[in-house]
Design goal:
48% helix; alpha/beta; 27 helices; globular; 8-stranded mixed sheet; 3-stranded antiparallel sheet; disordered C terminus
């Protein structure tokens, strides 16, 4: 959290040594320089916000600097019994080392702090920084909260904390981030990027008023009032009525300094005709330099929908040239029922770091980070396996082999993947276009609108168009597209197709509109690039965006929104410089050459061959992304398959003894067994352990974890078929497939070779 908040994350301190302040400034400058170099080198991206692209670069460049910054914060929180070098080794190298000579002097809390810091630097921070706001995570909007509350699906944690998103502007229906540190880090970023919502701001102001009323002393000198002044100062304003207070405080401090040093006080200097300028922040204990009130803004032109927040605030405060009209009311004089004034304060403070941090630390995290010691858990194995249904059948246009073992192998349609690859690597069907280094969302949309021949659709599977909802994108494009485009089709929540008409600006259902396909433009946002069908003209050209987390499955699904692709309809890829570098590095690594050598190879090819090779690199990179995604899911899938074996037995036992639950007599699962219905119910209770280790965490092999659970639930695993299922899962984790018929292990490639032999035999029979 220290890295996410920056300097304000340190606890309040009445005195900070100049050496510490200089170390902070130097570290911040180095971090700023590193981020700028990361953006220039395409290791980070700045649109829609700062996001990490290369973990290798992070560990080599940014992690050591973040370790130094974290150490500054740890020193302020009481970490003193360890040298800087030893602390950095612990933070960067692997937690508290038992072999360290001075490790015995560390307290339990200090050891845990170092281990938690190591986890954040090594795993949590790069994971969090890779996420895109409103694409991978975000805060629920007020309409979304109202809808979910109406359906009874809005727990307090989802109301206040950031939640996972299934795609751009589409939060999950009920999911939450399981890891508490990830949830905290993601929530900090969500509030920093999106700011406080109106209900958040209202609750914050009410809480401040309650705090103020509970304090004693002059209202302007109470701690909460001083905190309010600090916020207003940080926002570039001043609290009304504090000028006299500041002069009095300055006079008192000057008199005290005069008695100690013998220097002339400010009052005597004014008497002699000299009056130095006194910063307003000196009286309220603010260490940052104050921002002077800005000049009155010019009157905004009529119909200007994009006037800045500063202009709006200025108009709300008067803006007639009188500096006093720029002052904000003290906290105790705020009228919470004044809608206009509170709206002005909301726009002024909603994204202020000080305000957001206070709201999270004092109101959100204390209420939402508490958790139970155990939880009832379920997963897709329960639905797809034999636990609930003896017969299951399923179909998917994007099949996967990560199915419950009881469903058997996934049957793929032969040749489909090859056809897609052949189409998507054909230069006559797919072309690519590099975006400029300073690209942004309006620039992408403007470039799209100016393309010749005119484009018929934007398929944003890369989620480049952020910060605008679908209706706003349609309105932005409507008057920038060629005149022959009479409307822009977009999709609302639930997949409802709408069209915004150029002639009237009205929005209506696409089914009720008679605009032909050649006179309309279609915008597919990221969520609707799969499974959505909007008819296009036979020779339509669509722009398709590539994102850093895109997989081949999503890419192919998005491209085939053009139902006539390869039969007259074509695709133009929009590639950002950041994605181009990721693509080039991965494609070159797969060929065993450097990215520079791969570029030289491409440059030496004839134009047509080079275009095909570049498209092959795109598909190769997307395939690698798919493999990485499935590799992460594979170990979890194996663990769920193993748990499903004994969970299925536990459900069967509970069905027989459910009437005994709550009573004193409980039947065992088998004669002489100590396993009863209470133990079967306990199988579904997942222990929640969030303790921070005070020693070096040990890696737990997934196979060993499954073996340990098998011993714990041995009473449920008496059937030989269950033992075989566990052995097969263990074999899969070892890199082999287990043949249940012969009870032997076979290499992973054996199945593919057998399929090839069967295909060859079928071809020979057809001949």
């Amino acid at each position: 959290r220290a890295g996410l908040w920056g300097r304000n994350s340190a606890p309040a301190s009445k005195s900070v040594s100049s050496t510490s302040a200089e170390a902070e400034r130097e570290c911040l400058l180095r971090l700023k320089s590193a981020c700028e170099q990361g953006i220039a080198g395409n290791y980070m991206q700045r649109v829609p916000h700062l996001a990490l692209l290369s973990e290798e670069w992070y560990h080599a460049t940014l992690k050591p600097l973040m370790g130094s910054w974290l150490l500054i914060w740890l020193r302020r929180t009481g970490l003193h019994d360890i040298s800087d070098d030893a602390a950095i080794r612990c933070l960067a190298g692997g937690g508290v080392e038992g072999s360290m000579a001075n490790s015995a002097t560390l307290s339990d809390k200090q050891a845990k702090m170092l281990n938690l810091g190591h986890d954040w630097l090594t795993y949590l921070l790069p994971h969090v920084l890779r996420k895109i706001s409103r694409v991978h995570f975000g805060l629920l909007s007020v309409p979304e909260m109202i809808a979910m509350q109406r359906d009874g699906a809005l727990p307090r944690s989802r109301r206040y904390m950031a939640v996972p998103f299934v795609g751009k502007d589409t939060p999950t229906a009920s999911s939450e981030f399981a890891h508490p540190d990830v949830a905290i880090g993601i929530s900090i970023l969500a509030y920093r990027y999106e700011g406080l919502r109106k209900p958040d701001f209202g609750a914050l102001i009410q809480n401040l008023r309650h705090m103020l009323e509970a304090e004693i002393g002059p209202e302007l000198k109470r701690p909460t009032s001083l905190l309010w002044m600090e916020w207003i100062e940080a926002a570039g304003r001043r609290v009304r009525g504090t000028k006299t207070l500041q002069r009095r405080e300055a006079a008192k401090s000057g008199a005290a300094a005069e008695e100690l040093s013998g220097t002339e006080s400010p009052s005597r200097q004014r008497a002699s005709g000299y009056e130095p300028e006194t910063p307003r922040s000196a009286a309220v204990g603010i260490i940052r330099d104050p921002m002077p009130p800005p000049p009155p803004p010019p009157q905004a032109s009529e119909g200007d929908a994009r006037k800045s927040v500063g202009t709006a605030v200025s108009q709300a405060l008067g803006g007639d040239g009188d500096p006093n009209m720029w002052d904000i009311l003290p906290l105790h004089l705020l009228d919470l029922m004044d809608v206009d004034y509170m709206s002005m304060l909301f726009e002024l403070l909603r994204k202020l770091p000080n305000t957001v941090q206070f709201y999270l630390d004092h109101m959100v995290f204390p209420e939402t980070t508490a958790h139970q010691r155990a939880k009832l858990s379920a997963n897709g194995q329960d639905l797809g396996g034999e636990m609930l249904f003896s017969r299951r059948i399923a179909f998917s246009g994007t099949p996967s082999s990560l199915l419950p073992l009881e469903m058997g192998a996934c049957i793929h349609s032969m040749g489909d993947d090859a056809k897609m690859l052949r189409t998507l690597t054909n230069p006559a069907v797919v072309t690519s276009r590099m975006l400029p280094a300073d690209w942004d969302v309006p620039g992408v949309l403007q470039l799209l609108a100016e393309m010749q021949p005119p484009v018929s659709a934007l398929i944003d599977c890369g989620a480049l168009v952020t910060g605008m909802n679908n209706r706003e994108v349609a309105a932005y494009l409507l008057h920038r597209l060629p005149p022959q485009m009479e409307g822009v089709v977009f999709l609302e929540a639930g997949g409802h197709k709408k069209i915004m008409l150029r002639a009237t600006g009205n929005v209506m259902d696409l089914e009720r509109c008679g605009t032909p396909p050649d006179k309309r433009f279609s915008f597919y946002d990221q969520v609707h690039t799969t499974g959505m069908d909007i008819p296009q003209q036979p020779n339509a050209v669509a722009v398709l965006t590539l994102g850093k987390d895109l997989t081949f499955r999503d890419y192919a699904q998005a491209a085939y929104r053009m139902r006539g692709i390869g039969k007259g309809q074509t695709i133009s890829l929009f590639v950002t410089p950041q994605v181009a570098q990721l693509l080039a590095n991965e494609a070159a690594g797969g060929r065993g050459v450097s990215a520079q050598n791969r570029r030289a190879e491409l440059s030496a090819m004839p134009p047509q061959q080079r275009m095909r090779a570049e498209l092959e690199d795109v598909s190769a990179w997307l395939m690698v992304n798919s493999m990485k995604t499935e590799k992460i899911q594979f170990e979890l899938w194996c663990a769920q398959c193993a748990r499903n074996v004994w969970r299925k037995k536990a459900v069967g036992h509970l069905r027989h003894v459910y009437t005994e639950m709550g009573g004193k007599t409980l039947s065992p699962i088998a004669p002489g067994s100590a396993h009863t219905g209470r133990h079967s119910l306990d199988v579904f209770r997942e222990r929640v352990v969030r303790d921070v280790s005070n020693s070096v965490p040990q890696f737990v092999d997934p196979r060993q974890e499954i073996a340990d659970n098998v011993r714990v639930y041995s009473a449920l695993l008496q059937d030989p078929a269950d033992i075989k299922a566990i052995e097969r899962i263990q074999a899969l984790l070892s890199g082999h497939d287990f043949d249940a018929n012969t009870q032997t292990k076979r290499p992973e490639g054996a199945g593919f070779e057998q399929e090839q032999e069967q295909e060859q035999e079928q071809e020979q029979e057809q001949e």
